[in-house]
Amino acid sequence: MEITEKKTEKCMIIGIEGRLDTISSAVFEKRLMELIDNQIIRILVNCSQMDYISSSGLRTLLLALKRIAPANGKFVLCELGENIQEIFAISGFNKIFEIYPGEDEALGMF
Amino acid sequence: MNKSSTYTIGFRRGGLTLRYSLFFLSAILFIFSVIYLYTLGFTKNILENDAMQRASNITDLTISRISNIIRPIEQVPLMLASALESGHPDCNNVMEIAKDFVLQDSVAFGTALAFEPYMYDPKQYRYCLYIFENRDKIVHKDLSSPEYDYLSMDWYRIPKLLGKPVWSEPYYDKGGGEMLMCTYSVPFYREIQGKHTFAGVITMDISLQTFKQILKSAKVYKTGFSFLVSQGGKFITYPQEEYINSDVRAIYKKRGDPQALKIIDKMLKGERMFAEIGNFEQKQVTSRIYFAPVPRTGWIFALTFPTKELYSGLNAFFKKLAIIFSLSLFVMIILSVMITRKFTKPISKLVDATRRIGQGDFDTNIPVYRSNDEIAQLSNAFSVMKEELIHYINNLRKTTIEKEKIDSELSIAHDIQMGMLPKNFPEREDVELYASLDPARAVGGDLYDFYFLDKDHLFIAIGDVSGKGVPASLFMATTRTFFRSRISIGTPIQQTVEEINREICKENPNQMFVTLIAGIIDLRSGSMTYCNAGHNPPLLIHPSGDTSCLQDIHGIPLGIFDNAEYSSGTVRFITGDLLFLYTDGVTEAIRNDDAFYGEERMIELIMNNHMLSPAGIIQHLTLDLNVWMKGVEQADDITLLIVKNKGRKEVDNKTGETIQIQLLNKLDELKRLAIALEQIWKDWEIPANVIMELNLAVEELFTNIVFYAYDDEKEHAIELEFENPASNCIRIRLTDDGKAFNPLKNPTGDNLVKSLEEREIGGLGIHLVRKMVSHIEYKRLDGRNILLLTRNF
């Protein structure tokens, strides 16, 4: 898994490339928590290159959302692949997260 | 021959000659000393007694001679005195008798008659007539003149006082005899008016010159002499005139010798005694003195001589004796040296000869002695020893050469044998193999072998040839070469073994045989077809640690009967299984108390290390064996061979195929799992959407087991088995040996409807799994958790 970070005026765009499984989600979680600790609480996660997500990955995203929402931040996902969308659907996470099909669309929400 | 070192038998320090000579010398010296001292004491005693006896005899003789002289001197005045006391004697007649006696007697010198005043004649105050001899003439002398005053003279006064006859002290009679004399004075009495009244004294003088002659002959030893002492302690006679009339006690008083004074006192008391006393004249010299009283007179006769003269003869005797002793001592020393030399000389020769033999000169001759004593026996024993030594060294030389030859042969054979064993252990994904061989001696009878017949078929063999050394290793090499040339995939293994057995039996002059296991592993299916020809059953160790023993024996050892028949067996490995082959050198390794290493200990060690690589297991086992055999020579070759099946994807796409994956309880294993899954799905052509869901399910369950199944820190194996029973069906079985846990008991669904705030983090995995599979089932069996997933698509 690779994490790419792109800072824009509105928010921080994080790209996930590869598998977000039990091992890699620990790395992702560490990075996310660092950002939040530094008051970077406007985050857009681009999942276009994400091949796979395990429950740990879902858990990490949930953890970030739970910290950002009370701080009046914004945590948005976009460009989920078909398989990933299905997992979000099965887990009910599609009802918790703000998910947009395209990155521009998502950016417009900030 | 080196003569210079042969006869050096002088007084070497610590040498026998010196030691024995010193010993004899000391002993003789001691004996001589004892004899000398005893003789000295004894002889001195004899001499002392003898001297005393002689002194006593001379004393008695001399005293008796003096008495003989004195007796008539005393008798005449006694007789005349009694005549004077009877009536009215004629004084002139009395003096006539006395005068005649003086003339006749050689000793008597003079005689005197003296009266008390007015006693001779009432008109005459004094009367004293003295008649004495002077050169054969008789001289009459009237001593009544007032100048002489006889009344105050000792010779008159003392008898008057004592009322009895008295010998006077020696005195020089001045106005009388005009010479040194002693006087015997006898008092006489008259009856006047009925009273016994002292009337006067009649005397007889003797010249002391008389005794000088007598005493001159009374002596012992060379300078011995005798003398007379008066009752008052004055010398009556003495060889030196000047001592006469001087006081004996005064000599010792002046000298301050109380010991001598005591002796003198005893002498003057009239005792008889033999004593040692300081010389009268010389202070430092001691003398012996013998003294005895002369009866009636109160005189003492004494005999003296210097002490050194008593022993003068003795000293000469002992001087001679000492010379004799010294001479005999010298002779004894010479004799002892000669005798010890006589004994030590042959020993020294032997020492010299033995030393040279010790230095390797076996041509040295041991001296020969014809007598039958200990030296000769020793010498003979040395001769025998020399011969045996030569014999032994020759033998040793021969055996050493032979041994060196064998050693070099063995070393060559060892190099060949060890070179023959394959050491290029395969590095492959699907199989891991490691083997070792520790020969008991330079060349062993064990063998192991492996090689790939093609990319999917691995040939392995282990064997133990009866016997050790070069023949065993050659036999082993032959066997191995046969296998290498005959084994092939197409031929059943038992057939190959039978052929090889026939070949071996053809040329087996030593009747050797080999127990052996040969097998071909099909790496695709993880199955091994093998033939055990009388070898130790190999062990199959499962990832769980369970161990089973492949007990089947398919025939007798090779090389015994050429028509022996063999069968074969098949064993299937699952992923992670270890096949352990060994020779009996392992289980029969001996400890210093003769205990065998044993199968139990071996299995326990393998089970404790079964998660390690084959090389790691062999390393541990070898280490443990070395500890076991510490201090004991290894009795048999030790050969180990381990094959580990690491699992392989079945490429064959036929349905009903089962694929097993073995994983450790580590998150890192997820990578391996992902790779394996990818391969399986690809092989079985599973649709992409199903793959994602199956991956999620398997990974979630695996992660769950890693996180929650184990309380300890140890490594555990988690087994995954995949089955593709129909083209649209996948079955997956997860097995772990962790604590009993049924993940399906977790509540489902409720979580989904909860809002963000209510939703708990976690507990999501099982929910996802349920959604991903068609059917899920949990079982607890034999201490294992088993999850069975079925997914239809």
How would you summarize this macromolecular structure in one to three sentences?
The complex is a heterodimer of chains A (110) and B (793). With 110 residues, chain A is α/β, with parallel strands linked by helices. Chain A has helices spanning 22-37, 55-68, 82-91, 103-108, and strands spanning 2-7, 12-20, 42-46, 50-53, 74-78, 98-100.
The global form of chain B is: rod-shaped
Q: Number of helical runs of chain A?
A: 4
Domain count of chain A, please report it.
1
Oligomer: heterodimer
Whole-angstrom Rg of chain A: 12 Å
Number of helices of chain B: 18
CATH topology description of chain A: Transcription Regulator spoIIAA
Helical content of chain B stands at 40-55%
- Taking pLDDT < 50 over at least 5 consecutive residues as the criterion, the unreliable ranges of chain B are 1-9, 649-655
Structural class of chain B: alpha+beta
CATH architecture assignment name of the largest domain in chain B: 4-Layer Sandwich
Total strand count of chain A, please?
A: 6
Mean pLDDT of chain A: 88
**Uncertain regions spanning at least 5 consecutive residues of chain A:** none
- Which structural category fits the helices and strands of chain A? alpha/beta
Number of β-strand runs of chain B: 27
Greatest chain-chain contact: A-B, 23 and 27 residues
Q: What's the domain count of chain B?
A: 4
Distance, first to last CA of chain B: 112 Å
Major sheet description of chain A: 6 strands, mixed
